[in-house]
Design brief:
The protein is an alpha+beta fold and 258 residues long. The chain contains 7 helices and 4 strands.
Length: 258
Amino acid sequence: METENPSHEKPKITLYWLEKSRSQRILWLLEELELDYELKTFKRSKDMLAPPELKEVHPLGKSPLLSIEVSGASKPMVLAESGVIVEYLVDNFGTWLAPMKYMEGKKGQIGGESEEWLRYRFYMHYAEGSMMIYLVVALIMNNIKNSPVPFFIKPITGSIVNKVTSMFLEPNFKTNFTFLESQIATSPDGGEFLCGKGLTGADIIMSFPLIAARGRAGLTPELYPKLCAYMDRLEKRDAYQKAIQKIVDVEGYYSSAL
C-alpha cells in the first residue's frame, strides 16, 4: 500500500530496536505500512538495562526510538515513546490505521465522535498508562523472587512477592483481562479487532503487553478465549511475521518474553 506522505522524496527512517522491549511493535507497524527503513538493533546489558549507546540517540536512552530524516533538514527528528511513534506514523503514512473520528453528519460536534475512534484514543493511552504498569511490577516481583539472597532472607522476599502478587497483581490482571475480553466481544460492527472490523494502531500498541502476558498472569485460552483468539489473529498477520523474521535474520532468534 502506498504511503500518504505528499513529499516526492522519501524520508530516511531508522528504528532503534532493543531486544525484549516495546520496539517490536514499531517494527511491525513499519512492515504494515510497507515503509522503507533502516533497522539498528541493540542488546540489553547484564543488568537488563538498555545499553548506553542509545543515549547518543535520545537523552533518555530508551527504546523504541525512531529517527526521520528529510531533505533539507539540519538534523533528523527523533521520536521517543511508543504512543507518539505510532500516532506519528499513522498520521503521516497510514491514516487507514485510524478510525474515522466523527459519526456521519456529526463532524465537529462534541459527543459526535464514533465509538471506533473513542476506543482508538483510549487504547493509545491505556496500553502504557494501565496495562504495562502491572506487567512491569510483575517483572520486578519475579526478579526479586529469583534474586540470589542469603537463605535466611529468602522467606522474607518470598512472602513479600506472594503478597504483592495475590493482593495487587492477580486482581488487577483479572479485571483488565476481563475488560479486554468484553471489548473483543463487543467490537463495533461485529469486528475482530479492538476498534472494529479493521486493524488499527490501537491493536499494534496493545500487542506488546498482551503477547508478553500470554501464558502468565492468568491470561489463558480457557479463561479468556476471545482475547487469546484475537492475539492469535494479530500474530498470524503477514506484517507481524515479517517483523519477527527481520529480527531472526539479524539476531538469530526472537523472543517476546519480558
